[in-house]
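Inputs:
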Amino acid sequence: MFKTFIVGIVLGIAAAAAGLYLYPVVDQHREASIVSVAANGGNIEAFHANVPMDRIMIGAPGQSTALPAGLEWPADEMLQNVRVELFKIRDARDAVVGVAARTSASNGATEIIDWMLHLPARGSVYVNMRPESLPGGYRQGELRAGSREFNQWSGRMTERWVPNSSADEEAPAGRIELVTTFIGRQEAT
Amino acid sequence: MMKFLIALVLGALTGAALFVVALIYNPFVADRGISPLAVSQSELVALNFSAVPSDTLVFTNDGNSAQKPHPEKVLQLWEAPVRRTSAMATVLRDARSQTAGIGVKFSSLSERTRLLQGDALVDSVWYVYLPKQGSLFIQQSENYWAFLRDVSWPAIRSGANNWKGNWVGDLTDGPGVLGTAVVTGGTGAFQGLKMEGVESLIARAYSADRGPIAAEGRLLIELPETDGDAEATAAAD
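Outputs:
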């Protein structure tokens, strides 16, 4: 019986090692990407954040109502002209696929608008927007850096506020629409 | 026959337990040792922040983890694609504890995690805005294996479910070849710069039920050498 116990120990060690090796400890849920091809090359993908339901935080000085309730934005003078917003972002099917941060700041002469999008199963992108608005209410920016899937990509992104046009009482007030047009750097050269 | 079956099952359970203990105390998983930026001669930017969720501006996750969202009513990340993700916005302080700017961090458990190899990985990105200098984007893999082994596991084992001590370690584990984070300058003085960085953690108290109780994080960013630095180094050589 002692020999059987020893065999059991060996089997237990082997089973635990095999289980840990074969079974993924982390398996991120993936929504199928909805990508279309741009006429001049590159992948177009649209994301949006429904406002106000997808807004996680508005961090800015002088807010009459804090979001989330209980948020205390620092009174430090250094952060007086900074506004940070966090959102959940959705794909074209309206499924939540990631989170995003939008930071706007001005220090006198220059105005900064930056987006950071994080799609857990895919990677992240960092986009600098040009502060001036284009016809149609768009603002355009350049992809500065990306991680993992987006590591070797270049391209641009537009942002636009789209007010709600439905009569549904539960409809959001509108949505922030983000459209990315990315192309692999090797393809671009 | 039944006796042999019971012995086999007990043996298998003992084997599995032995395997778990060997995995946690695996001597072949070496600590990373000194940070690659500790010996850098370039100018470094150090940004400190509290790693305790209740000390941040906002911290949110799926709401079921040990680290509870803050403030309490913040929107939680419960949808399947973001359930293993946390989001944090925090004030960043310089070496003199003065406000230097704002940082936003998104972290997701990494599918490259391999516990057999001592890799408990998290894919994370930072957006850092420093009003006097500009903005930065930091992308990194973090390895929490040493933290889990030295802090979380002792907390779970203790009767009171907590740990006290002084744990200092680098979390960044790539994608840079020296185990550093890739830092991209966005605006202001950082515009167009490619840099390296390391995120480290100093933990002093941890609860298995509530997460970090007293802990401080630090981002160390190595600025690229200017022409003046290069000339000074060459002259010194």
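Remarks. Chain A touches chain B through 72 residues (CB under 8 Å). Residues 2-22 of chain A form the longest helix (21 residues).
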